[in-house]
Amino acid sequence: MPTLAANTEFEIRPAAAADLDAVIHLDTQITAMPKVEYWHGIFERFGRRETDGFFLVATSGEGVLGFVVGEIRAWEFGSDPCGWIFAIEVSPDLRMNKVGTALYAALCANFRKAGVSRIRTMLARDAQLVMQFFRSQGMMAGPFIQLEKELDE
Amino acid sequence: MNLKMATRHALFAILELADHPRAQISSAQIAEKYAISPNHLSKVLRTLVCKGLVEAIRGAGGGYSFVGNAKRVTLLDIILIFEEIGTPPSHKQEPGDDTAEGQALRMVMGEIDAISRATLSSITIDTMLKISRRTPGIGSAVHAL
User: What does the pLDDT read at residue B139?
Assistant: First the structure.
C-alpha cells in the first residue's frame, strides 16, 4: 500500500479500467469483503458516465490513494434530485492527509455542475470514522429515516 | 433530549478552550460569555482536568486550555463523563417492564437512544466548532472572548 510523504501531490480524476484492481484491493483491505464483480459492475455503470454518475480516484505516482462514487438520484420517496454518495474510501495509511476531503470536494463540484444543490448519503450507525468525516464536511441529519425489516418475520 | 447542567457547562468550556488553542482562558471569562455560574463551572473544569482533557495553569496569566485532540474527541466522549445517554444497564425495573407492552416500549426507546449515541459520537469538537461558526448566536449573552 502506498505511503504519502509530506507535501506529496495527488490528483483527482475519473476512474479508469486500469484503476479497478487497486480500488478492489483498497476496498478489500478496509471492508475485509472482496467484491470483485460488484466493483466491475460499478465501473461499468459509473466509470464512463459524465453527467449523472461519477467514479473518481485520487492518485499519486504511488498509485490509487482513494476513491469516491456517487450518482444523481431523483424522486425517491419525494426527494427532489440530489447527489447521492455511496462509496468513499481512503487508504488507512493515508488518512488525515486531505485525500478524502479532496475526493469529496471533487464529487460535489461534479454534482454542482450537473445542476443539483444537495447531497445525501446513508451510513451504518456504528461507522463512526466515516460519519465523523461527513460531519466534518458539514453534513447534518436529513429529513429521511432509514427503516428495515426481516422478510421472514 | 436534554443535557444536565454540568454537561452543558463542560461542552461550552471545551468548545471555548478548543476554539482558542494557544490561549489560557479563565473560568470567569467562560462563565461570563455563557452566562453560567462560575462556581459550578469551576467544579466542571476540575473534572475535565482530571479526565486529561483540560490543563490548568495557575498564577498570573494562567487559566485553562484544551489539551485533547479536537479532531478525535467527540460530544459523546464529553457527555459520558457527566451522564448516561438513554437507559443505563443498571436501570431498575419499572412497573410494567415485564409486559409485552413494556418490552415494546423499551425497544422503541432503545432505538431512539441508539440514534442519539450515533449522532453524538459522530460530531467531534472540531466539527462542533465549525457548526458553531456558521450558526448565528442570539441574545446578549453571546459575544466573542
Answer: 57
Domain count along chain B: 1
**CATH code at A73?**
3.40.630.30
Q: Touching check for A31 and chain B: CB below 8 Å?
A: no
Output the nine-digit C-alpha cell for A130.
Answer: 466515516
Chain B: closest CA distance from residue A78 (Å): 23
Look up the domain containing A48 and give its range. 11-136
Could you tell me which residue, B143 or A95, shows the higher pLDDT? A95
C-alpha cell at A152: 421472514
Report d(CA A102, CA A109) in Å as an integer: 10
All three cell numbers of A15, joined, read 476512474
CB B118 within 8 A of CB A126: yes
- Which residues form the domain of B43? 5-133
Is residue A9's pLDDT more than 80? yes
CA–CA dist B123, B70 (Å, integer): 10
Mean pLDDT, residues A19-42 taken together = 94
| Sign of the Cα pseudo-torsion (B46, B47, B52, B54, in order) | negative
The pLDDT of residue A72: 94
Cross-chain Cβ contact A132/B123 below 8 Å: yes
Full DSSP string of A82-139: EEEEEEEEE-GGGTTSSHHHHHHHHHHHHHHHTT---EEE---TT-HHHHHHHHHTT-
Please determine, for the modelled complex, whether the ipTM score is greater than 0.90.
no
Tell me the chain A residues in contact with residue B121 when contact means C-beta distances shorter than 8 Å: 128, 131
